[in-house]
């Protein structure tokens, strides 16, 4: 730093100039990221909020209609079904991929060669939602691979119309999402399990705890921070479900298997009802942001340190 | 006990591989051999190459692959540098209200992408970058920036302040310190972010559906979706072959960089 001599005044102004210089540099470093986010995310965000209060088909100017589009949204039976489906997705992904992920992580924990045991579950995570959709619609189509197998072994449900009947189609799509997502949840739970300190576990073992008792009273409570993260991610992810549904049913037949993300896309890009699409997007946002707070609080809290 | 656990895991693991098995054996069937009655039984693999060629050519997968390759390399590359710059400004430089700026950038990941699709579409059409590779690179970059800033901010905050001060005393400018010291030090974090974002962009469908149209701009997942929804004149083996081609790169990348993948995930979840 500058050594202050017998002439303090110029030194101070020099330092002040330097601080300003540093702030300018800092701003220059921040600017690209900030400008991109503001121009391509925040301004569009505000514009969509405005569009949700208008009647607009992309031609001419948006016409302000107040809350009409929200009324329309909550009175349209197809959109209400879409809301129900989205709810089924949230609950379903909490039970299946999260539950199974926890199961796999606990089973793998402490085994030698854990990487190899986890691998089959992790592979599908690298596959896109649309490719998962391709595979599973092939398996589940009428007379497809699953029907074949069920018939061969004389099992029930051989005549089920997996992708055609509601709510069966939503449920089997959640199974496809489980195939894709359980592995990554298992990986996250494994990270959580590894970070559990040894002392309480050993102390409990001395006291004779093992198996279920150990899991129930020691492992599960100590896994809580990671569980919050996995559950938060799962809820937020399931609210936005788009790719797998698009790949398997495109929201059909009719519109019975739509999720809100699909409904938004169809309203805006296929039916040219931008106002309605925006209203659905805003509903989705409110729900998603609320759910995000669950785990975001954890992520942002340590940031307050500096 | 361990034996039972292993047996359960192996059994469940094999069940998990069944869809991949079905995909591969049926993508390898010549269309004439393909029928619902024999989907579980592999036939010779003679059809695989032919189906891949048909998917690449008539299914337009080849054009989609090229575009997607460009998007999923360029965008995360630009994004890690821009995100790292923001992280550097927040952690190492004398920025006013660093936490505010951090939250402002990071919060943009909270709302669903549906919230910006329509204005982006309208804006892109007006500026003239709708259905252009430039437009696609731009939006994928923006999507990747907040996560990159988030991870790199966390990483930089682990670098001792003395590193910066020592370089400063030696007369290095912030730019030099950033490019010569901080960036090289954070190679593994940069790589982890790059891998995660590249995979994410490779697998994107929605932005491709909304902001592109022509076959040479459309990313490959959008092409695959089009191929599958109408069956675009393609038989099931060809569609499956298409699904196989687009999945192999991410699976290989994932296996090769598994360590970075989980590191990136961990960095994403934790501080």
UniProtKB/TrEMBL annotation, chain A:
One Pfam short name: BPD_transp_1
Q: Which family does it belong to?
A: Belongs to the binding-protein-dependent transport system permease family.
Q: What is this protein's record name?
A: Carbohydrate ABC transporter membrane protein 1 (CUT1 family)
Q: How does it sit in the membrane?
A: Multi-pass membrane protein
According to its UniProt entry, the protein's GO biological process terms are: transmembrane transport
The record's subcellular locations are:
Cell membrane
Give me the Gene Ontology terms describing cellular component: plasma membrane
Q: Where are the transmembrane segments?
A: 24-47, 87-110, 122-146, 166-189, 220-239, 274-296
| Assigned keywords, A-Z | Cell membrane, Membrane, Transmembrane, Transmembrane helix, Transport
Q: Which InterPro entries match?
A: ABC_transporter_permease, MetI-like, MetI-like_sf
Q: Where is the ABC transmembrane type-1 domain?
A: 83-295
**From what superkingdom does this record's organism come?**
Bacteria
TrEMBL record, chain B:
Q: Which GO terms describe its cellular component?
A: plasma membrane
The protein's matches in SUPFAM superfamilies, at most eight in alphabetical order, are given as:
MetI-like
InterPro entries with a match to the protein in the record: MetI-like (IPR000515), MetI-like_sf (IPR035906)
Q: How does it sit in the membrane?
A: Multi-pass membrane protein
The name under which this protein is listed is Carbohydrate ABC transporter membrane protein 2 (CUT1 family)
Q: Which UniProt keywords apply?
A: Cell membrane, Membrane, Transmembrane, Transmembrane helix, Transport
Tell me the Gene Ontology biological-process terms attached to this UniProt entry: transmembrane transport
- Annotated localization: Cell membrane
The ABC transmembrane type-1 domain is annotated at 65-257
Gene3D superfamilies in UniProt: MetI-like
């Amino acid at each position: 730093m500058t050594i202050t001599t017998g002439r303090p005044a110029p030194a101070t102004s020099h330092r002040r100039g330097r601080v300003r210089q540093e702030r300018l540099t800092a701003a220059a470093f921040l600017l690209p990221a900030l400008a991109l986010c503001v121009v391509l995310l925040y301004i569009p965000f505000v514009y969509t909020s405005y569009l949700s209060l208008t009647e607009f088909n992309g031609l001419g100017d948006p016409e302000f209609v107040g809350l009409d589009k929200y009324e329309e949204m909550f009175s349209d039976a197809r959109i209400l079904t879409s809301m129900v489906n989205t709810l089924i997705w949230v609950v379903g992904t909490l039970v299946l991929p999260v539950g199974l992920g926890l199961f796999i992580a606990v089973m793998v924990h402490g085994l030698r060669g854990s990487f190899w045991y986890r691998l089959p579950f992790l592979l599908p995570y690298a596959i896109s939602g649309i490719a998962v959709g391709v595979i599973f619609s092939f398996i589940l189509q009428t007379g497809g691979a699953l029907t074949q197998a069920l018939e061969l072994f004389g099992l029930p449900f051989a005549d089920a119309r997996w992708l055609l009947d509601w709510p069966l189609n939503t449920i089997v799509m959640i199974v496809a999402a489980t195939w894709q997502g359980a592995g990554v949840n298992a990986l996250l739970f494994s990270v959580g399990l590894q970070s559990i300190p040894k002392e309480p576990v050993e102390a409990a073992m001395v006291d004779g705890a093992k198996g279920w008792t150990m899991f129930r009273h020691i492992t599960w409570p100590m896994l809580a921070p990671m569980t919050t993260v996995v559950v938060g991610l799962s809820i937020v992810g399931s609210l936005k479900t788009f790719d797998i549904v698009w790949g398997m049913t495109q929201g059909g037949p009719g519109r019975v298997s739509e999720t809100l993300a699909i409904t938004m896309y169809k309203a805006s890009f296929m039916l040219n009802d931008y106002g309605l699409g925006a209203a659905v997007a805003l509903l989705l946002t409110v729900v998603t942001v609320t759910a995000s707070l669950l785990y975001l609080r954890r992520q942002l809290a340590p940031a307050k340190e500096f | 006990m361990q034996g039972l656990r292993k047996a359960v895991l192996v059994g469940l693991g094999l069940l998990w591989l069944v869809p991949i098995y079905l995909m591969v054996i049926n993508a390898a069937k010549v269309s004439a051999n393909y029928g619902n009655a024999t989907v579980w039984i592999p036939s010779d693999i003679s059809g695989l190459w032919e189906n891949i060629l048909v998917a690449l050519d008539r299914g337009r997968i080849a054009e989609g692959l090229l575009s997607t390759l460009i998007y999923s390399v360029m965008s995360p590359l630009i994004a890690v540098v821009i995100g790292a710059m923001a992280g550097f400004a927040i952690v190492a430089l004398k920025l006013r209200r660093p936490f505010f700026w951090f939250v402002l950038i990071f919060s943009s990941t909270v709302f669903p992408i549906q919230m910006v699709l329509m204005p982006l579409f309208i804006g892109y059409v007006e500026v003239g970058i709708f259905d252009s590779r430039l437009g696609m690179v731009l939006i994928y970059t923006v999507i990747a920036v907040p996560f990159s800033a988030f991870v790199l901010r966390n990483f930089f905050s682990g670098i001792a302040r003395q590193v910066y001060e020592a370089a400063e005393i030696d007369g290095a400018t912030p730019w030099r310190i950033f490019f010569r010291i901080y960036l090289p030090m954070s190679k593994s974090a940069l790589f982890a972010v790059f891998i995660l974002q590249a995979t994410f962009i490779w697998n994107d469908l929605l932005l491709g559906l909304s902001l592109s149209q022509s076959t040479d701009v459309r990313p490959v997942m959008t092409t695959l979706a089009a191929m599958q929804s109408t069956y675009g004149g393609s038989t099931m083996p060809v569609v499956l072959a298409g699904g196989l081609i687009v999945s192999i790169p991410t699976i290989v990348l994932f296996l090769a960089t598994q360590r970075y993948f989980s590191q990136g995930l961990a960095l994403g979840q934790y501080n």
